[in-house]
Amino acid sequence: MGKTKHTGPIKLPAKPDPKLWVSKIPFGLGKVKPKHIRETAKIAWQNRDNLPYAVRILTQGVCDGCALGVSGLYDQTLAGPHICTTRLNVLRLNTMPAIRQELLHADIDELSRMSSTELRQLGRIPYPLIRRKGERRFRRATWDEALDTVASKMRGLDPKQMAFYLTARGITNESYYVAAKVARLLGTNNIDNASRICHSPSKTALKRSVGVGASTCNYKDWIGTDVLVFWGSVAANNQPVSTKYMYAAKRKGTKIIVINPYYEPSMEQYWIPSIAESALFGTKLADDVYQVNIGGDIAFMNGIMKVWFEMEAREPGSAIDHAFVAAHTNGIEELRAHVAQLDWTTLTQSSGLTRERISELAALLARAASAVFVWSMGLTQHRFGTDNISQVANLALLRGFLGREHCGLMPIRGHSGVQGSGEMGADPFSLPGGEMNSAADRDRIEQLWGFELPKWQGDIVGVTLENALLPEEQERKLRLFYTSGGNFLETMPDPAFVRNALESMDVRVHQDIILNTSTLLDAREAVVVLPAMTRYEQPGGGTSTSTERMVYFSPEIDGPRIGEARAEWDIYVDLARRVKPEAAAQLGCETAEAIRAEIALAAPSYDGIQHLRERGDVFQSGGAWLCEDGVCPTPDGRGRLLPIELPELRKPEGHFAVTTRRGKQFNSMIYSDVDPFNEADRYDVLIHKEDAKELALNEGEAIVVYNGFGRMHGRVKQADVKQGNIEVHWPEGNSLIPKGVYEPFAGIPEYNTAVIVEKAETYHAHKDTRYVEKRIIELEIEMEG
């Protein structure tokens, strides 16, 4: 799409800058912070039984953690080696031995007493397993028995009664592509992926606002931009290598702004282990933090635009890039009229920020010649997530922060493979390189694949789970669920409902490298477990797409192999041939190289993937900047400025808005019970000291957080969180989140709601007098109103 190519890594300054130091005391002694050296030593000890292989993975493979895109120890942004504790923690998934047989075949009740962390530490799944109805242990199965069991069930189903799901744990583009092709060959459009519960609104909003579904810029654009804004993103915690890019940006004079309900300590200051100066004295990252109400971002951004239009009324050209807007956008007058009718009282109450604070950021951005907006789940995991992202796009379009150096829109990805999932067609709305609702794309893919695609609309994964509980006679009653990785018990709202749904399916297939709590649940007929290879084990290697659209080749790495584990894509191919042997010739996909050659034909922006063969091979899909020079791939080549209405935040009087946050974890895999940045326990509830004082709550006191959907027992943790808002850890707080609330455009589940906070002794003392039940009924009535 863009004509400019990425120019490769740049060097960090050689001389230190004491102005950025957090403390002159070496290694932050006495401060609450991660102990990187200690943690690295601990991880090395955990991998001592396979240390040479672990080193080869780190130095030869593409990181299977976040989507920053580190190949070996190097990336395309900064010269020098990069390593982070997230990648090191994930490393053990690749080096640990097989689960011992006496544990693997233990009574299911005994295994079910373990947490997912404990199950993960048992080791890798070595061979196929089956547990049929009434059996209390998994028994070993051959590949033929396991796949024939699944294939036989599939042949007897209406394709609308089965579904596929792929998580993002190290899964490659090749596996996403083959899964997408196999699902359609078998007649189903019920296929979805992990992006549905993290960044689906980003793709949807960017498509409608600027015509693309990915980051428009690079990490290099952070370094030297005037303003770098992190909106609802705690990159320091979820993508730790990004702190090195932040350091480089600070050294170039970039101002870093953080917008989040909680003043996340890791975004204020960080000790970056791969930079000597920072490892010793820390680095001040954030220049300012705007603590917005949970869900108040649309009001905040409308407020910024209101200030800009007021500035323009006083001095034309003082806030809006009129040349860019005139040449490259539509909708400026509609947006201006929409913002003009919004009153400041409503904007400040909804956002939680004063007019003065909103005006400060508006003025900073108006003065800036360049800016990059970075966001994550703090903006997307709302029932109005797509509107949140279109608001960010509005800001960028009004200022011309698009399609050029040091400018852009970046949904930063938390998974190494997930950017490629939809681009490979592994969701119900997408096809490789196109959209399911596009007649041209459907015709193109049907000609390439040689078979007709299903014409009905597939379901998003949340609806798929709900379909398991439909009446028997319903045509979309879900009977078979095939999931590659993932643990919906610990990722979706309302875990009790999810458990019921998973156990109501006839057959559940878990294609994975480890056990988790969902694997152990019953099914009405059978649970089939298929052992998968990691990306480093797959014959022919594999590719993954980073946040900045870099497509990296990760080679097969010499080392031990686990029992009968097979490449993910190979399992899909084998299954399809058993279900539809008559269509085997149409399937292809016999080798990783053949799959990449086919991807290049199916997804035009991935032309080049067929040439990736060796360690270090990489190309960037779309060039350095999408929408280069402001030209968007929309029908008229222009971006759309969209009036976005304020959402109803639904927080009744006396209640708190609650959202979930991540601690020391990768996805739902928890690596520590204590957050190294704030010393919060997994069941600590972050609450402002004034809110705690008003409720007469003391630090560490037992409390119950509840609403009409569920409850959570926790303890008071006074923290710098926006008053009227509380934060709980994910997934521990998912019991509070209602099921079935989806963003209307992208289908992401809502992960925010309203709750009551009460002393545990009060909650339990009045429970038998129906006090609690009365309060919950009142809450439900208020929420519905």
UniProtKB/TrEMBL annotation:
InterPro entries: Asp_de-COase-like_dom_sf (IPR009010), MoPterin_dinucl-bd_dom (IPR006657), Mopterin_OxRdtase (IPR006656), Mopterin_OxRdtse_a_bac (IPR010046), Prok_molybdopt-oxidoreductase (IPR050123). One of its GO terms (cellular component) is membrane. Residues 658-754 form the Molybdopterin dinucleotide-binding domain. Residues 124-577 form the Molybdopterin oxidoreductase domain. Pfam families: Molybdopterin, Molydop_binding. Keywords: Iron, Iron-sulfur, Metal-binding. It comes from the Bacteria. One of its GO terms (molecular function) is 4 iron, 4 sulfur cluster binding. PANTHER family: PROTEIN YDEP (PTHR43105:SF4), RESPIRATORY NITRATE REDUCTASE (PTHR43105). This is Formate dehydrogenase. It comes from Paenibacillus oryzisoli.
